[in-house]
């Protein structure tokens, strides 16, 4: 069974293929209207979602298929071992997109699924987001060669997926990450990243920005913890530690890289509100491209099956 649980499953040629087809789909969507005819997609979500939910539902519907949305907490996945529910659920669809809290649960789901599973985001990876990010970079730069990207913020699932993609596409990635989410850390991935020569840790944000074509930031607090009363003290502590790394005009130091963010945005925290709507912001282009790259990914996964 061919699953997409991180970006490790895709080689360089496959990543290029998915990205280029995403660009083609964006330009000529009518060419793909019947590409997923009568194919069923199960969206199994334990985490809240805007972009993953909307883009996958819109994408498969626009290509002649259909989506079924299932909330983990209101289904029997919440009360029964995953292996049993997975074997049943996967007999009712052609693909599963799972947006779960724990990567270990995603692995268990994939192990017992009868159909391909796509990781729609968990605590370790966010491959669908990264594919959209790389498509956006390619649209703007016209190449990956010679491109430098800075990621500033907490080292999290998004950072991991950017790392995995950059070392395959040949993009220089500067990591300004004073905090690491323990659940996200992937030692094997990071060792490969450092050995590749494409990934570098930088402590000074201004230095990284001065070397970058694109600067990317993300939330400092996981979405499921953002409004948690039990996490409030740790959240406030993390915000105070991260505020010097906010993406703002002062920290850009006169440089004007393209600004990226996977959304949802918390203006005044990880990014200054003025930059969100600035001329160099490509945040909404990133978000729009989620659907186009995911259409391309759906086609690839169904054909592989």
UniProtKB/TrEMBL annotation:
Protein's GO biological process: citrulline biosynthetic process; L-arginine biosynthetic process via ornithine
Alphabetized GO MF terms: amino acid binding; ornithine carbamoyltransferase activity
Sequence ranges assigned to domain Aspartate/ornithine carbamoyltransferase carbamoyl-P binding in this UniProt record: 3-139
Pfam families assigned to the protein according to its UniProt record, in alphabetical order: OTCace, OTCace_N
Signal peptide (from-to): none
Keywords, ordered alphabetically: Transferase
Domain Aspartate/ornithine carbamoyltransferase Asp/Orn-binding: start-end pairs: 146-301
Family: Belongs to the aspartate/ornithine carbamoyltransferase superfamily.
Function, in words: Reversibly catalyzes the transfer of the carbamoyl group from carbamoyl phosphate (CP) to the N(epsilon) atom of ornithine (ORN) to produce L-citrulline.
Protein name: Ornithine carbamoyltransferase
Gene: argF
């Amino acid at each position: 069974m061919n699953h997409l649980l991180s970006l490790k499953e895709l080689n360089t040629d496959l990543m290029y293929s998915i990205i280029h087809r995403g660009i083609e789909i964006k330009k000529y969507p009518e060419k793909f209207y019947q590409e997923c005819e009568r194919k069923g997609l199960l969206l199994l979500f334990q985490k809240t979602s805007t972009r993953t939910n909307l883009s996958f539902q819109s994408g498969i519907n626009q290509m002649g298929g259909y989506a079924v949305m299932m909330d983990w907490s209101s289904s029997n996945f919440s009360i029964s071992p995953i292996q049993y529910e997975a074997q049943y659920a996967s007999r009712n669809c052609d693909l599963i997109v799972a947006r779960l809290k724990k990567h270990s649960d995603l692995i268990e789901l994939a192990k017992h699924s009868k159909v391909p599973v796509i990781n729609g985001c968990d605590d370790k990876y966010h491959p669908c987001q990264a594919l959209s990010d790389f498509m956006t970079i390619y649209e703007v730069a016209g190449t990956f060669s010679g491109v430098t990207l800075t990621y500033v913020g907490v080292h999290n699932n998004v950072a991991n997926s950017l790392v995995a993609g950059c070392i395959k596409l040949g993009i220089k990635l500067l990591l300004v990450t004073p905090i690491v989410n323990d659940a996200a850390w992937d030692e094997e991935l990071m060792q490969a990243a450092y050995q590749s020569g494409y990934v570098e840790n930088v402590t000074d944000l201004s230095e990284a920005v001065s070397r970058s074509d694109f600067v990317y930031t993300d939330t400092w607090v996981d979405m499921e913890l953002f409004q948690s009363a039990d996490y409030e003290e740790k959240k406030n502590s993390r915000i105070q530690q991260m505020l010097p790394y906010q993406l703002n005009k002062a920290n850009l130091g006169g440089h004007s890289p393209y600004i990226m963010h996977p959304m949802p945005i918390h203006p005044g925290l990880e990014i200054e509100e003025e930059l969100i709507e600035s001329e160099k912001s490509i945040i909404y282009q990133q978000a729009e491209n989620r659907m186009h790259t995911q259409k391309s990914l759906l086609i690839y996964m169904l054909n592989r099956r």
